[in-house]
Amino acid sequence: MQFSDVEQRLERHRLVPVMAIHDEGHAEPLAETLLAGGLPIAEITFRTSAAEACLRRMSKYDDLLVGAGTVTTVNQVGQAVQAGARFLVSPGFAPQIVQAAQAEGVPIYPGVCTPSEVMQASLLGLETLKFFPAGSSGGPKSLRALAPVFPNIRFIPTGGVSAENLKEYLSLPNVLACGGSWMVKTNLFQDGNFEPVLTAIREAVQLANQATNSNFEKSK
Ligand code: 3PG
Fold this sequence. Notes:
This protein has one domain: Aldolase class I (TIM Barrel, Alpha-Beta Barrel), CATH 3.20.20. It is 43% helix and 15% strand. It contains 9 helices and 8 strands. Helix 2 (27-36) runs parallel beside helix 9. The two termini are 32 Å apart. The model has no long low-confidence stretch (mean pLDDT 96).
């Protein structure tokens, strides 16, 4: 998958489900639930010891775009790419990590929440950035303020996004997609039943489609 294919997939679905999977045996049912729910994207975070195994297991699904999240070291860049990650997400902006990803030829979305960080990321050639932690960094209000200053930057707000505020974020022209854990939280499948995850994914997909359609209507 090319760099631009990753962005196109994010632009089409506008959602990045963020997962911290503790049991690698959950990789396949989660992958299948995402595909069944019409959301072929997964961000597996390096917050658990099962992350690398989950990346390997989920990246076997050709139709699923699998990325690695919470990338906080240069080593994790290589580790993630080796395990099949096709995009990387970092909570903050570290030039060394961005450059390591660029050397691997894999898209990276580092977290930023200030104009200075946007500028530094921009100087490394990035045009799509994670906005993190979105909720506590001013949410949609801050994204509106950043828009005229950085007209070529698209954001992926993450952190505090939920079914309640998703449409508000997605209605902003400088938001490419929203990231979040709400639809794939471990407590939704504690008993091994993935139906609640499927329901939450379907609801999020529906909300994202509504937001995209209403943006399209407004632009006519
Ligand atoms: C992330 O890793 O991007 C965030 O922790 C996800 O934030 P959320 O749990 O508020 O969705």
